[in-house]
Amino acid sequence: MKYSNEQLAQLIEPTRVHRKVYLDPDIFDMEMERIWGSAWIYIGHESQVKTPGEYATATMGNKVPVIMVRDKDSKIHVLHNRCGHKGAKLVDQASGKVSAFRCCYHGWTYRIDGKLVGVPNMPGYEGTGFDKSDPQYSMQKVAQYDSYRGFVFATLDPTAPKLTTWMGAGMAECLDNLCDRSPEGEVEVIGKPMRYVHDCNWKMFTENLNDGMHPMVVHQGVVDAALQYMKTVPEDSAERSEAEIIPPFGASYEHFESTDLFAYQYGHHYDGGRTSIHAAYSVPNDYEQLMIAAYGQKKTREILTFNSHNTMYYPSLTTKTAVQNIRVVRPISVNKTIIESWSFRLKGAPDNMLKRTILYSRLINSSFGMVGPDDLTAYYRMQNGLESNGSDWIEMHRHYGRDEDKGDYIHGLLTGDLDIRTQYKAWKDYMTREQLAQEVA
Amino acid sequence: MTTIISANPSIRDIEQLLYQEASFLDKPDLDRWIELYTEDGTYWMPAREDQEDPEFELSHIYDDHVMMEIRRRNFVHPRAASKDYKIRCSHIISNIQMAELDASTGDCTITSNFHALVNYMGEQRMYGGSYTHRLTKDKDGYKIRHKRVDLINCEEPQKSMIIYL
Prior knowledge:
The complex is a heterodimer.
Chain A: H1 5-9, E1 12-13, E2 16-18, H2 20-23, H3 25-34, E3 41-45, E4 54-60, E5 64-70, E6 76-80, E7 95-97, E8 101-102, E9 109-110, E10 116-118, E11 144-148, E12 151-155, H4 163-180, E13 187-198, H5 202-206, H6 215-218, H7 220-231, H8 238-243, H9 253-257, E14 260-263, E15 269-272, H10 285-295, H11 297-305, E16 308-312, E17 317-320, E18 325-333, E19 336-346, H12 351-365, H13 372-385, E20 393-395, E21 404-405, E22 410-413, H14 418-431, H15 434-440
Antiparallel strand pairs in A: 1-2, 2-20, 3-12, 4-5, 4-7, 5-6, 8-9, 9-10, 11-12, 13-19, 14-15, 14-22, 15-16, 17-18, 18-19, 21-22
Chain B: H1 11-26, H2 30-34, E1 37-46, E2 59-63, H3 65-75, E3 88-101, E4 108-120, E5 123-138, E6 141-151
Parallel strand pairs in B: 1-6
Antiparallel strand pairs in B: 1-2, 3-4, 4-5, 5-6
């Protein structure tokens, strides 16, 4: 390893971070091993694999190929996508359905739960010591996998805490709320993901999620364009109300100052609390009635007024709870990241709710959109600007010393840097853990 | 912007409208481009092969007149970082065919293939696929009521792009 734990620790100070963490391919490799190889990584949603034999593939970190598959007893497994013989990937599609996994090379065949069942021309192995029933030749299960409200995570670290422990009650509440917005308490994935190439380090994306100081600057162009257009159409026109979805993206500093930031262990956080930029979105009456029928008046109110705008399940998943969109971080290299956007249907809710979910995601998550490309241009310029050795440090001082420790979480404001400091605290913990130090030695 | 068409349009006449649209996108000049569309016109770029619905499934773009008007203004806004980079495009349209014609109105559906070479943020990119134009005729000639752009790599990861194709 090029960096000792001590050297890694020196890259992170309470209020600043060394530029190498975004630029050095060696640090990226260590992140893949120590953060992405040990945190719970979002794999997919159970509704992607509805029936036995249906599978969906994912990559953990930048390398490890895995398969999420439903077995004949309807149990979901996350298996290494690797033949137990010579190591070929067993499937190379994003998703599909199989009755068994069969390797394209020598035809070794596995049950859908990964157990090796078929090796062609077995007599050749007689007396060689090869034992087909030895589990090492089956498809290997990922060290730990579990799901929460249908969201499937896995970790490559057998010593990692349980999923619910890692997630914590506060972050679990955000996923609960995303699902509870369905009158049936369940969501299902819609279609395939939209994937967006980001020419930047993965952390530039994760550090923007709860950055409350950029929207009014980065999105000023599209907000102005929408406001200019709105002046050309009558006050009560359909055109005007359609355009109104855009101006909140450039809400004022005052607005973001009144949005809370909740920071948790393991680098997790979300913004919301008293308000969010979606707080004013109206709730269609037909939907509200279905919710009241399912949950009663009081609980419905609680569910629909719970504000969580962007969450960060560090390092791989972020949700937009109120509009049922998620984005998944897939790091490729030190300066390349792919962001997957998935949208969900609230089971039992009217179609207009899904229409809103899709509209919202298309507006902000599309690489051809009017919001995402401006964010990405900023990340891209940081990635390139940081190559300057004019200074080695990036500051993260905002509201430092003003955060309140509430026991279960740390409270701050969306306009502060608590989110970034939270991520780097976890970064440092993951990167310099004692047992890893011993392995390296 | 109009194209003069006889009662039964010939494909050659229709081609002119498609070429005109391509030349406005080549510049790009969205102020003139938007005039080729009807007030209820839509532009759709699906994110999935054979996608049937623009509203209940994710798309790269699904703009109606309101979004086109906002995009047109945003495109020239000095405070939109993604627009700081000059963009140059070159569209080639071919295999133009009339898929449907309503003889009573002259309204028709035109399919074509396209390649668009785009230079943006210091790199040259190639986009390609098929277009489906639904054209409608009024007293001044044809306008575009709907355009569908099926990229051949619509399901692959895409980079930032600030212009219609």
